[in-house]
Design brief:
With 293 residues, the protein is of the alpha/beta class. Helices cover 25% and strands 28% of the residues. The strands form four sheets. A six-stranded mixed beta sheet has the order 5-4-3-2-1-16, with helices on both faces. A six-stranded mixed beta sheet has the order 8-9-10-11-14-15, covered by helices on one side.
């Protein structure tokens, strides 16, 4: 199957998963849904963060992931992209980068199965949530050091992953450097997703005047973690064009990048940024004078 691309118009699909602790069944699930996306006419297909493995124990992560050159999940997904003739954006895979260190790495794979772009997650999710829910990505993941924009036939894709969503400066930089599409593959926790997912994803689209494509994990995972789901495609004006529920599925939207140009023309805030200094005003505290009784 070979997809014909049209200038600045394309069909996007997001694959929502519920990955577990074993790589092979995760890839089977991902492949079935990627094929469904291609059959639905998608030219660009995105999977979530942690496509091949959802694991919280550092020892198991380190035992299961491989260097990029010999990564079984990456090889299988590259072959699938070539077979289907699609741009396949693998939200992230764990890639061994040294003794005891792993990159949370996103890949854009072209329709020939070649790697067109790589991005290592910049911001590590080291947080303590209510109810004892705690995460320390930096224990074994090494953060990336650069932002990445992938030039695709139909637009420029700014690559980010999950917790990056909370750092708006990254998105403004991607947009001012030419990105009119923003990817946010994620595995948002249910707790934080219920509170912040909708407002943050829509805000990133509105602030940048870009389409946001955010494929996520969803539901209760084998490792006991619960993710929010609700993969979303959002227009540059902040409209939700497609949204998933909590279960594994595929969602679609037809993208016309003229909408990004129009949004940026209506609200040209990307052109209006200014450098500034910070002044901290500290009032002088004076003792209160009491009146004589």
């Amino acid at each position: 199957m070979t997809v014909k691309f049209s200038d600045r118009h394309f069909r996007a699909a997001l694959v929502q998963l519920r990955a577990g602790r074993a790589i092979a069944p995760n890839l089977d699930q991902a492949e079935a849904l990627i094929r469904q996306a291609a059959e639905g006419g998608a030219e660009y297909v995105q999977t979530p963060e942690n496509t091949a493995l959802m694991e919280l124990e550092p020892e198991r992560v380190l035992a299961l992931v491989q260097p990029e050159a010999v990564s079984v999940p990456l090889a299988r997904l590259r072959s699938l992209a070539a077979e289907l003739g699609i741009w396949l954006h693998v939200g992230s895979l764990g890639i061994k980068i040294g003794e005891g260190r792993v990159a949370n790495r996103s890949f854009v794979i072209d329709p020939q199965g070649e790697i067109a772009a790589r991005y290592d997650k910049l911001h590590m999710f080291d947080v303590d949530l209510a109810g004892g829910e705690s995460y320390r990505e930096s224990q074994y993941y090494g953060p990336g050091s650069k932002a990445v924009i992938a030039e695709l036939p139909f637009g420029c894709l700014g690559m980010t992953i999950c917790y990056d969503l909370r750092f708006p400066g990254l998105y403004r930089t991607l947009a001012t450097e030419g990105a009119n599409l923003i990817a946010i593959p994620a595995a948002f926790t249910k707790q934080t997703g219920q509170a912040h997912w909708y407002v943050l994803v829509r805000a990133r689209a509105i602030e940048t005047g870009a389409f946001v494509l955010a494929a996520t994990q969803g539901g209760l995972h084998e490792n006991g973690r619960e993710t929010f789901g609700h993969s979303m495609i959002v227009s540059p004006w902040g409209e939700v064009l497609a949204e998933a529920g909590e279960d594994p599925e595929v969602i679609f939207a037809d993208i016309d990048l003229a909408a990004s140009d129009e949004a940026r023309a209506r609200i040209p805030s990307l052109k209006h940024g200014r450098d500034f200094e910070i002044e901290i005003a500290r009032p002088v505290l004076r003792p209160v004078q009491k009146e004589a009784s």
